[in-house]
Design a protein that fits this description.
The chain is mainly beta. Helix content is 5%, strand content 46%.
């Protein structure tokens, strides 16, 4: 990491200008060219969780037990890297072995955020980073090759989720107070406060109706943040924060909405629960909410995690067994299974779409079909819209999608924000 300190902002802007030129006309097309970003050995799960407007991705990578790909076990290890074409930058840690990230964690200047273990045991026995190590978990800002710890708001653990082009960061941090809404025996039992970091200063954000907990997941370039307000065990309300004020977003009939991203036109995406109790991808605009389409055959829930200024949104769905099902794109009033527009030659079956940028590039994770029967390998990917016909799609050649029970979300409830990576925690389900 020492050699990276010499990169500087000039290097970042120079490279991103070149990358942008490659993608400036690649917007809103029906077909995609897919780049397999792979996963670094010995990890066996890679997922692009952040994407900027120059095609840089911030990838979460984890080593899962090859024979226990289930929600019962935490990952063995985890790391974070940035991919720029064929260049991979490892972000490092604060002394522990593991780091992880959440949605929307990289901006156009090349700054990235997430969470990292330290080498110090958590005095309360918590395991906020979720790797089973019970080490203190610190929110981080990665800038010019160096990882910096972001301050908390009274406690010792936290997570940075998203960063805008001004360097404002959204996430959460513990208050240092035990959460009275946590059931007895809850492993991560401290109050989590939604936080915005601006110029290195942590500013707690208000919750709704006296809720003790909250998390900010997304932030736009106007400084508007979105997330949820709730308790130790439930997200009660989707929230927009602006100028230190929290505004509750409407739900679809049942409580439990979560907002994940907001664009510059005040369009917000996330998940809301309808009156039948079904969690669905949702869009909020002009103080109204609507479901982003229904569910495809075999799916029982969906959620959206990114929206660009063109109103294109992406997200994912789950099946009745709790498997990641497919990556989804919503545009022009249509819901598209990305496997129907990704070329079969990629050998990648898309199970999650995490981010979409202003050029219409999409990032997420996909099952490597060529290795499916040799051992489940999940790769990060970057897909770029193209004009030319790419031939047969993944859906044309894979008629039954693979059932991959990765550490993921409980499809019977709303996604919980307590974890930045794909594993179950006591305080939440994602």
């Amino acid at each position: 990491m020492r050699t990276l300190r010499q990169l500087g902002n000039f290097w970042i802007l120079w490279v991103t200008t070149i990358v942008l030129a490659c993608f400036s006309n690649a917007v809103g097309q029906a077909k995609y060219k897919v780049q397999d970003l792979g996963v670094q050995h010995p990890d066996n799960l890679g997922m692009a969780m952040g994407l900027n407007n120059y095609g840089w991705t911030e990838n979460m990578e984890q080593l899962l037990d090859h024979f226990t790909l289930s929600t019962l076990y935490p990952p063995v290890q985890g790391t974070v890297r940035i991919s720029i074409g064929d260049l991979n930058l490892e972000l490092g840690t604060f002394g522990g072995k593991n780091s992880s990230i959440n949605w929307n964690g990289i901006n156009d200047p090349g700054e990235a955020v997430g969470m990292s273990e330290t080498s110090v045991s958590d005095p309360n026995g918590e395991d906020v980073c979720g790797f089973g190590t019970h080490l203190i978990c610190s929110p981080f800002l990665w800038q010019n090759g160096t990882m910096y710890a972001l301050p908390t708001v009274g406690g010792i653990n936290g997570q940075a989720s998203a960063i805008n082009n001004s360097g404002q960061v959204a996430g959460y941090a513990e208050s240092g107070i035990a959460d009275p809404t946590c059931p007895q025996g809850t492993e991560n039992f401290m109050v989590d406060l939604p936080v915005m970091w601006d110029k290195g200063i942590a500013m707690p954000l208000p919750t709704i109706n006296g809720d003790p907990d909250g998390v900010a997941f997304g932030i736009n370039n106007r400084g508007q943040a979105v997330g949820y307000s709730g308790t130790c065990t439930a997200a009660n309300y989707a929230v927009v924060w602006e100028n230190g004020t929290a505004t509750q977003l409407p739900d679809l009939g049942d409580p439990g909405a979560i907002a994940f991203a907001i664009n510059s036109h005040n369009q917000v995406v996330g998940q809301a629960v309808n009156s039948d109790g079904t969690p669905l991808a949702a869009l909020w605009q002009n103080n109204t909410v609507k479901a982003l389409g229904g569910l495809l055959p075999g799916d029982v829930s969906s959620f959206a995690t990114s929206i660009n200024d063109r109103g294109q949104a992406v997200g994912s769905s789950f099946d009745s067994k709790g498997n990641w099902s497919r990556g989804l794109l919503w545009q022009n009033g249509m819901m598209i299974d990305l496997n129907t527009v990704f070329p079969a030659s990629s050998n990648l079956y898309v199970v999650s779409a995490s981010n979409i940028n202003e050029s219409g590039q999409i990032a997420g994770m996909a099952v490597d079909m060529s290795l499916l029967y040799a051992g489940t390998i999940v790769h990060a990917f970057l897909a770029t819209p193209v004009d030319q016909d790419q031939g047969k799609s993944v859906a044309d050649v894979v008629h039954t999608h693979p059932e991959i029970t990765l550490p993921a979300a409980n499809v019977g409830k709303q996604l919980s924000p307590r974890s930045a990576h794909c594993s179950i925690h006591d305080k939440g389900i994602f």
